[in-house]
Amino acid sequence: MPQPLPPKEAALFRTVVRNYDDKQYKRGLKNADIILKKHPKHGDTTAMKALILNAQGKTDEAFALGKVALMNDMKSSICWHVYGLLWRAVKKYDDAIKAYKQALQIDPDSAQILRDLALLQMQTRDYPGYVQSRITMLQARSQLIQNWTALAVAHHLNDDRATAEKVLDTYESTLKTTPSSRDIEHAEIVMYKNRLVAEQGDYQRALDHLDSAARSNLDRLAVLERRAEYLTKLRRNEEAAAVYRALLNRNPEHPEYYDLLEAVVELGSAEERKKIYDEYAEKYPRADAPRRLPLNFLSGNDFVQAAKEYLTLMLNKGVPSTFANLKHLYSDSFKKETLATLAEEYISSHNDSADATNGDGTKGQPAALYYLAQHYNYHLSRHLDKAMHYVDMAIEKVPQSVEFHMTKARIWKHKGNLDKASEWMERARTLDTRDRYICTKAAKYLLRNNKNEEALKMMGHFTRAETIGGPFMDLVDMQAVWYLTEDGEAFARRGEEGPALRRFELVSNIFDTWVEDQFDFHAFSLRKGFIRAYIDMLRWEDRIREHPFYSRAALDAVALYVKRDDRAAAARANGDVTNGEDAAERKKAAKKAAKEKQKLEREAAERAAKKDPNKGAKDGANRQIDDVAGLKLLDAEPLSTAMKYVSHLLQFSPKNIHAQLAGFDVYIRRKKYVLALGCLNAAIALDASNPKVHERVIEFKHTIDPVLATLPPKVQDLIKSEFKAVPADNTAGQYNQEFLEAHKESPPHVVSAVKARKVLGEDPSKVEKELVALVKGEKVTFEQAGEILEVLKTWKSKEVDTFRALATGRWPQVTIFS
Q1: 620 — pLDDT class (breaks 50, 70, 90)
Q2: 555-583: b or e for each residue (b if 16 or more CB lie within 10 Å)?
Q3: For a tag site, which of 458, 496, 673, 779 has the least CB within 10 Å?
């Protein structure tokens, strides 16, 4: 039981609680100190003071005071509850749950503690515990609709859909009157119940429920989509076709509806399929989908006719996205060539006088020139000289077109001239300085050209000037993942590993924030009745790190950490205990960090007088980034730090071959041979002929052979039985030579085989000269030559200058060799 207070102090304690709820922290601390002056051992007041201090950002002081509160009164539910809130604030959810449970043992009827416990159980995906908490909450307050729906959601997420449905049945039986047809909360419950029935596989019952309970549901689109789905599952194709036609009448631009309608109508020939699209093209003259989608399945003269009609219509209108709408057809060589021919015919048949329509010069012939420029710039039909020719003609006709200038910048990028690409993208930006998109593209091209400072200045055109830390801090606040990734990669190319690693860590932190942000929606979504959207959000959150944005940043970070570990290992092998190169990098990063810190301190001093003491330190305007230069990351043990990324990559992107290779690189260096072999076998299963996989096979064979006999017997047996990439009677050298002979016409495979020779101990100078000689190969592209250059630089080869000279002679416009 809490320690009793005299009436006057008890009233003041309630005021402290109100001060905290109203975020009047300074006043709350003052009142708490008044109580503690008379009753210094009062646990509840001490706990509230700790809570207020935590809200002001004084976390360490708050924890110390929270422990004092517990020592003063171990039997106070308030002290344990506050202790749980402190753990929750630092994202230590397991410790917070333990504290909440202890508080509930003291006060099992506390709705607030029970609610906080349930929210954390959902956050940590403790579904069995969440079910029990929700049962208790429902028993305490069964009159609240959200308690019923929350219990149903708990059973649903615990894979007990039948019980979840029964919960909603019981709720409906408690209703004394039928809810209004305009009751959106009840309408959502009905559709959620229907979803539960369908997920149990009982589509007939789901359809019956839809026809009875959801006939007048407010979400008409969901009702129609579910009805069509159930009818299709039940093979009632005629009825399903009628519903899909109704859906197309609502939205004739939805491609999936056409596909589903085709499936239930069971049409055979392309001619029969096209009749459906012709029907909707005639019915909805302004719709794009019924004219464009038939191009996917038409062939021969039918395709030529349909493509000509569609392309002519789009070019007459001057639609900028025409090529984007059609480029997926380029996997078919006939369609690719036909579209180019049609665009060229269009140009020859339209004279200049008909180009401008209603003052828009991008219609007609300029649109066709723009299409052909994109056509020849696309990787499946690339001919960059032709692309440049057509885009120059388009710009000559319409000098103020942003899109034309952007395409010319892309062509220069594909030519390898990043200076020119950045220059032309900047010209495009100056044509429309109020467009945020073109500004970000200009900044991106600057970053690709390793001009980080100029790119940040460019982004400053659209960031808040008052943000502490300038444009960079505002971009972090806005969670501009693309910018942080490109910025980090640019720093990595410049050799500034500290800032690069810090950018990749910031990307990871943003994904952590997205995971943590769902906490607020556990209560909000159920209170507002958005049950289906809430379930979808939870499932999306569970796989959020599958996103390519995360994979890209994580792989970049792992590659840098592996590079740093290799460098440190080489330094130790050469007797350099201090690793002078890394020490120089840290010194350079520290100097840059000092300058940045001085700048931030000046800005902070200007705003110090305006700071509201009642606002917590987590307020957005006061947030600052520690260690922008990444000094702490440079001091961290590389492989241990890399494991944070590797574990997420292997968990969420197991089908990504680069994730498996990254896992191998870290595990093999940590001497976790079984885990490394697991990643290697997974990569082989994904693409056994990948040249990067071959490099790892050779590396594993070369690493494991000398140490295999020293490993535990079970580990030896496992490796012998699972490592089958190299035949038992083959040496690594023989296997590598066979690989080279099998892929001698493929430059990437040849490069991997030559690199493998260095791993196997061949003369480094000989291997380096073999790599240099590859630049003369006819099939070698400048991108592949750039990768060879990076390898030589990593090896600190004396052949770097020779390679640069040869590469520059062959590709004089490519900037990466200059």
Answers
A1: very low
A2: bbbbbbbbebbebbeebeeeeeeebebbe
A3: 779
The β-bridge partners of 360 are 357
Decide which of 267 and 591 is more confident: 267
Structure tokens at 448: 């690709």
Give residue 357's pLDDT band: very low, low, confident or very high (50, 70, 90): low
* 3-class DSSP string for 36-92: HHHCCCCHHHHHHHHHHHHHCCCHHHHHHHHHHHHHHCCCCHHHHHHHHHHHHHCCC
Pick from 695, 683, 607: nearest CA to 649: 683
Q: Which amino acid is at 391?
A: V
Nearest to 669 by CA among 572, 749, 553: 572
Cβ–Cβ contacts within 10 Å for residue 159, how many? 10
Chain centroid to CA 674: how far?
A: 30
> Long-range CB contacts (< 8 A, 24+ apart) of 766-773?
768/792, 768/795, 768/797, 768/798, 768/799, 769/799, 771/799, 771/803, 772/799, 772/802, 772/803, 772/806
Q: Are 240 and 231 in contact (CB under 8 A)?
A: yes
Q: Which residues contact 95 (CB under 8 A, 6 or more apart)?
A: 84, 87
- Amino acid found at 203: Y
> Three-state SS for 357?
strand
Ramachandran region, residue 378 (left: φ > 0; alpha: ψ -120 to 50; beta: rest): beta
Say what the pTM is. 0.90
The arithmetic mean of pLDDT across residues 276-283, rounded, is: 94
CA atoms within 13 A on the CB side of 371: 31
What are the strands, taking DSSP E only, across 259-410? Answer: none
Give the pLDDT band (50/70/90) at residue 295.
very high
**Nearest of 146, 144, 99 to residue 120 by alpha carbon:** 99
Mean pLDDT of the chain: 90
Any idea where the domains of the chain sit in the sequence?
A: 7-190
Dihedral sign (CA 720, 726, 729, 734): negative
**How confident is the model over 395-433, as pLDDT tens digits?**
999 999 999 999 999 999 999 999 999 999 999 999 999
- Which residues face 357 on adjacent strands? 360
**Rounded to the nearest 10 degrees, what angle do helices 43-55 and 77-89 cross at?**
20
Cα(547)–Cα(563) distance, rounded to whole angstroms?
A: 25
Tell me what pLDDT residue 353 has.
47
Q: Is the distance from CB of 202 to CB of 186 less than 8 angstroms? A: no
Contact indicator for 121, 158 with CB cutoff of 8 Å = no
Alpha helix positions (H), 350-383: 365-377
Per-residue pLDDT band at 377 (split at 50, 70, 90): very high
